[in-house]
Amino acid sequence: MLDIGPLELVSLVVLAVLIFGPDKLPKLIQDVSRTLRKIRQFSENAKHDIRSELGPEFKDFEFEDLNPKTFVRKHVLEKDELGLKEIRNGFDFKAEMADVTDAVHGRTPDPVAGSSASSGASGTPDLLKKAEKIQPGERPPFDADAT
Predict the structure, then answer these.
(1) What is the pLDDT of residues 72-110, one digit of tens each?
(2) Residue pair 101/142 in contact by the 8 Å Cβ criterion
(3) Cβ contacts of 109 within 8 Å, gap of 6 or more
(4) Which stretches does UniProt call biased (Low complexity) (predicted)?
(5) What is the distance between the alpha carbons of residues 38 and 44, in angstroms, rounded to a whole number?
(6) Does the global pTM surpass 0.85?
(7) Which of 1, 10, 124, 137 is most buried, with most CB under 10 Å away?
């Protein structure tokens, strides 16, 4: 219910009793519920009028389809005529990001594990290992995280 916890609900009820008083509160609740019923009835009447005006060819029309996310999910992702699920499942973003990180840090990827040679078990580089020896006149490796 709109992410309202029990303690918050009790505090709202106590606050409403303090603001409106116990004698006016039932009348206020009736007025609010009557207004909500009228709004729902108006909304249902508008939906019915729109459906009747569109005609029989739009009998399967759902108003939830007007939301772009719902429309795309229903008409593109459910049918999957283009093979989008296969394409989406074919990407391994963690491995690709690890390869980019290795390339930036100048490391070569481990062909057996598919991740960097200095990676720990979690796939993140072990930053506590000893730094490699740098030859005199050689530039140190670029650390993208330090900039």
Answers:
(1) 777 766 665 566 666 767 777 788 888 888 888 888 766
(2) no
(3) 98, 99, 102, 115, 116, 117
(4) 113-123
(5) 10
(6) no
(7) 124
- Read off the pLDDT of residues 25-65 as tens digits, 9 standing for 90 and up: 889 889 999 999 999 999 999 888 888 888 887 777 777 77
Is pLDDT of 115 > 50?
Answer: no
Tokens encoding 41? 């009835």
Dump the DSSP string for 12-44.
HHHHHHHHHHHHHHHHHHHHHHHHHHHHHHHHH
CA dihedral 54, 60, 63, 66 (to 10 degrees): -90
d(CA 113, CA 119): 10
Task: For residue 125, count other CB atoms closer than 10 A to its CB.
Answer: 19
Segments making up each domain of the chain, as ranges? 7-57
